[in-house]
Write a structure and sequence with these properties.
about 220 residues; alpha/beta; globular
Length: about 220
């Protein structure tokens, strides 16, 4: 089953209230004549992008991001965007060092229009997936709106919600936790091979593909 057909089957998992959809349409019209216009067009391919974010809040937040491309049946770890977004005031701080250690990022970028534009172009108009995706997108959108003037308009699937729904369908009395590692264990998937945000994005992509196979088998 293709990624887009799965999206059609699981519209209830797509994030987007009426207000969000109206904002996306407003942004699409606003940016129609800009270099970013294509980001607001419907995606017709088979690829998706798995997203993971970790943020340290404050007046100048530090945000570590990983985006990994996946296609039906495969996660392309060689096609990944990984960086920590931090303003100059955080470049030598303990928070930045903590992000390097915990989230395994080597690149530090200022959250300006150039770097955010590069991330937007990497993601493109492909659907986004991720564990507790709404939280990650919300964190990124604060930077995108400040730097580019718009939030990510992509269709979105929360792998956590997909996991909970599928697990309860098979085991109605089963208790579910809120951690990605617990979900991987539930589906008898191996432990993470990658550390940090890249590991989180890759694991959510692999879990998504695993759940996609389960759903396809059930018809």
């Amino acid at each position: 089953m293709s990624g887009m057909r799965l999206l059609d089957r699981h519209m209830s998992l797509l994030s987007g209230s009426l207000r969000t959809l109206m904002q996306r349409e407003s942004d699409r019209r606003r940016w129609a004549d800009s270099p970013y216009a294509w980001l607001f067009q419907p995606y017709m391919g088979e690829e998706m992008v798995a997203l993971a974010c970790q943020v340290s809040p404050g007046q100048s937040p530090v945000l570590s991001v990983a985006a990994v491309v996946l296609s039906p049946g495969r996660v392309h770890t060689s096609r990944a965007w990984v960086a920590t977004l931090a303003g100059e005031q955080n470049n030598n701080g303990s928070t930045l060092r903590r992000h390097h250690q915990l989230y395994a990022t080597d690149t530090v970028l200022a959250p300006n229009a150039e770097h955010l534009g590069a991330l937007a172009e990497f993601i493109g108009n492909r659907p986004l997936i991720g564990w507790q995706l709404g939280r990650s997108v919300e964190q990124l959108n604060h930077l995108f709106k400040a730097g580019l003037g718009f939030g990510l308009p992509n269709a979105q699937v929360d792998v956590g919600k997909l996991h909970y729904r599928q697990l309860r369908r098979l085991h109605p009395q089963c208790e579910t936790g809120g951690r990605l590692t617990e979900a991987l264990a539930r589906w008898q998937m191996p432990a993470l091979q990658w550390m940090g945000v890249l590991g989180d994005a890759t694991a959510s992509a692999l879990l998504y593909l695993r759940l996609q196979r389960e759903i396809a088998q059930q018809g």
